[in-house]
């Protein structure tokens, strides 16, 4: 597939019927988001907005919005091809102890070490803005959600160098636009960019930064990938491996960094470690909730280079499923073989969209001995960014981890609450709003494997049938409720007092209708209890497992009682609780009218 920059990829999408051009004026404030959100949830095409009022450039969004487009961006027919290719090239020796494991490491490095190619210049330097010419307001940078603190650059490739080693890093960190030449730099504490800034501060130096927008779509993916910390392996070399061709780099014009020669735009500038950090946010984040304002460093743009007739690339995040789910799935497929190198009993794993990457991991193993489910789950928690995982479900049944509801039903069938579960503490994603402390909380492992005799005798259990609200017991604090066949009872409530969620769950566990139920979840009143994905998404966002998950013994046996309601200061929760992301009704109406006017949009909107 012969494309190595954004515009050739766009041409390929259009040839395949995977692109919709929109010439009607559509505002960068909220309207693009609303239309793009509808398209990705329908599996619709990528959208090229050619007329963004008040802006000098067109905008493309939804490039990775289906599994098929994600595979196409990486040059394969399906994402599973990547895992098979890596396994074949590595010729993995699974098992055999430390010596066999060590024998694979040179292959691993060679696999990801196709170095970039240096060129004297590239299309991205055809036009140059410097000094007073720099004006980010000319770019169609969207304001994504009503509560956002402003417009955000959402698909940037942020390039920096380790001030001590010179090792390059390319990461994707959102950037709030503060003014015509200044943005925030959302370097979270666990990110490589943050470590570069800390080192620059110790050395008393500014940290030079370049931000690429567009370029090879595989490089945009690589900036999100959890690449192992091995010298010489970085996002450029991963892209080279995926493409089978080196990434072309040229020297930036005003900073000592190499940048993708075929990008659409490059923002050149610096971050001053001595400058006071600025308030950034709120931002409608990939969690589906707003990330509240916090302090982050400022990025000063001193030059902008671009190709002739550039196209601005963007993405949006919010309530799943979103485009980022397919970026996450690509990483799953790419890093499945290396994970199996360390734990060969892993057959497959998946991070469902409802788990927004870090909140849920479904794992299928080949089980041979008691306790193996915990061995694998805890091993995964020690692998790179998997350390942020909150809930891990493990089974040895013949089931695909991508079958989200069926996977839960299988795990619940085999897991006796309390006996077959384990809590742990560890790092938590800094965007998690429910953890006991910022970036620190707890994890829950549920062992849904078939049990060996040492793990406890098989316990007779007959799952509940589906029950509607009218068939369930009444309680003055219940807003809506629903029992899903197979062991689930979802209850929603308008929370007005401390411990309300916990008390409702405890009450439900004692009711006769709890027979056959193994998981009772109490959620906020904005959640639809008949929508399994909505319930799991809300639940996982709103729990710190050790604090919010209990095992209660009712008349019908043990049951997980999970308090997925917002936490109050009266309950000892000191941080502010964010709101769920919703679009304003007036913007929804405007987009309804736009879709009605444009037949291609109407057809795409109705596609399944």
Description:
- The chain has 608 residues and is an alpha+beta fold.
- It has three domains: 6-77 and 112-314, Pnp Oxidase, Chain A, CATH 2.30.110; 324-455, UbiD C-terminal domain-like; 469-571, UbiD C-terminal domain-like (3-Layer(aba) Sandwich), CATH 3.40.1670.10.
- It is 27% helix and 23% strand.
- Strands 5, 6, 7, 8, 9, 10, 11, 14 and 19 form a nine-stranded antiparallel sheet that branches. A five-stranded mixed sheet has the order 21-22-23-25-24, with helices on both faces. Strands 26-27-28-30-29 form a five-stranded mixed sheet, sandwiched between helices.
- Helix 4 (79-90) packs parallel to helix 9 and helix 15 packs across helix 16.
What's the topology here?
Layout: H1 6-15, E1 19-22, H2 31-41, E2 46-49, E3 59-61, H3 67-73, H4 79-90, H5 97-111, E4 117-118, E5 127-130, E6 152-153, E7 156-161, E8 168-171, E9 175-179, E10 182-184, H6 192-203, E11 207-213, H7 217-222, H8 235-243, E12 248-251, E13 258-260, E14 265-271, E15 278-280, E16 283-284, E17 290-291, E18 294-296, E19 298-306, E20 312-314, H9 324-342, E21 346-350, E22 360-365, H10 372-380, E23 391-395, H11 404-414, E24 421-427, E25 440-447, E26 480-484, E27 488-493, H12 500-509, E28 519-524, H13 532-541, H14 545-548, E29 549-554, E30 557-564, H15 585-597, H16 599-605
Parallel strand pairs: 1-2, 3-20, 4-12, 22-23, 23-25, 27-28, 28-30
Antiparallel strand pairs: 2-3, 5-19, 6-9, 7-8, 7-11, 9-10, 10-19, 11-14, 12-13, 14-19, 15-18, 16-17, 21-22, 24-25, 26-27, 29-30
């Amino acid at each position: 597939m012969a494309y190595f920059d954004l515009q050739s990829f766009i041409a390929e999408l259009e040839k395949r019927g995977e692109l919709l051009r929109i010439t009607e004026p559509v505002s960068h404030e909220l309207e693009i988001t609303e239309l793009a959100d509808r398209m990705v949830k329908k599996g619709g095409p990528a959208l090229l907005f050619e007329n963004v009022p008040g802006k000098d450039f067109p905008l493309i969004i939804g490039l990775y919005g289906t599994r098929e487009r994600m595979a196409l961006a990486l040059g394969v027919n399906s994402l599973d091809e990547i895992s098979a290719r890596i396994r074949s090239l590595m010729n993995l020796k699974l098992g055999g102890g430390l010596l066999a494991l060590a024998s694979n490491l040179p292959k691993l490095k060679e696999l990801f070490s196709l170095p970039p190619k240096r060129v004297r210049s590239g299309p991205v330097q055809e036009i140059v803005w410097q000094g007073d010419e720099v004006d980010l307001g000319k770019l169609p940078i969207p304001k994504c959600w009503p509560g956002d603190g402003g417009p955000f650059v959402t698909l940037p490739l942020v390039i920096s160098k380790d001030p001590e080693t010179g090792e390059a890093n390319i990461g994707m960190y959102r950037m709030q636009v503060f003014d015509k030449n200044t943005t925030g730099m959302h370097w979270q504490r666990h990110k490589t960019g943050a470590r570069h800034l800390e080192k620059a501060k110790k050395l008393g130096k500014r940290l030079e930064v370049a931000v690429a927008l567009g370029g090879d779509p595989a490089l945009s993916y690589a900036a999100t990938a959890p690449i192992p910390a091995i010298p010489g392996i970085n996002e450029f070399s991963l892209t080279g491996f995926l493409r089978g061709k080196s990434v072309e780099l040229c020297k930036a014009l005003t900073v000592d960094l190499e940048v993708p020669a075929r990008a659409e735009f490059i923002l050149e500038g610096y971050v001053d470690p001595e400058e006071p950090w600025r308030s950034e946010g709120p931002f409608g984040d990939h969690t589906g909730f707003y990330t509240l304002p916090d302090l982050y460093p400022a990025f000063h743009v001193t030059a902008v280079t671009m190709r002739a007739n550039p196209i601005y690339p963007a993405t949006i995040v919010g309530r799943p499923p979103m485009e980022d789910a397919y970026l996450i799935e690509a990483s799953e497929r790419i890093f499945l073989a290396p994970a199996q190198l360390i734990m060969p009993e892993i057959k497959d794993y998946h991070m469902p969209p409802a788990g927004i990457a870090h909140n849920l991991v479904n794992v299928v193993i080949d089980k041979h001995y008691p306790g193996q489910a915990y061995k694998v789950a805890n091993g995964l928690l020690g692998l790179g960014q998997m350390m942020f995982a909150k809930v891990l479900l493990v089974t040895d049944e013949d089931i695909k981890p991508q079958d989200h509801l069926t996977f839960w039903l299988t795990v619940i069938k085999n897991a006796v609450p309390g006996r077959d579960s384990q809590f742990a503490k560890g790092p938590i994603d800094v965007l998690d709003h429910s953890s006991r402390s910022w970036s620190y909380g707890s994890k829950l492992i549920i062992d849904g494997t078939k049990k060996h005799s040492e793990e406890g005798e098989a316990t007779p259990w007959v799952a509940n049938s589906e029950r509607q609200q009218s068939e369930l017991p009444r309680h003055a604090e219940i807003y809506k409720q629903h029992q899903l066949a197979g062991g689930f009872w979802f209850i929603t409530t308008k929370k007005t007092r401390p411990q309300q969620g916990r008390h409702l769950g405890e009450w439900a566990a004692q009711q006769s209708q709890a027979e056959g139920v193994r998981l009772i979840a109490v959620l906020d009143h904005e959640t639809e209890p008949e929508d399994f994905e909505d319930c799991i998404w809300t639940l996982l966002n709103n729990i710190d497992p050790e604090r919010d998950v209990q095992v209660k013994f009712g008349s019908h046996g043990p049951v997980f009682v999970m308090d997925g309601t917002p936490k109050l200061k009266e309950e000892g929760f000191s941080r502010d609780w964010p709101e769920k992301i919703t679009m304003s009704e007036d913007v929804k109406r405007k987009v309804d009218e736009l879709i009605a006017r444009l037949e291609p949009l109407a057809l795409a909107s109705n596609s399944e």
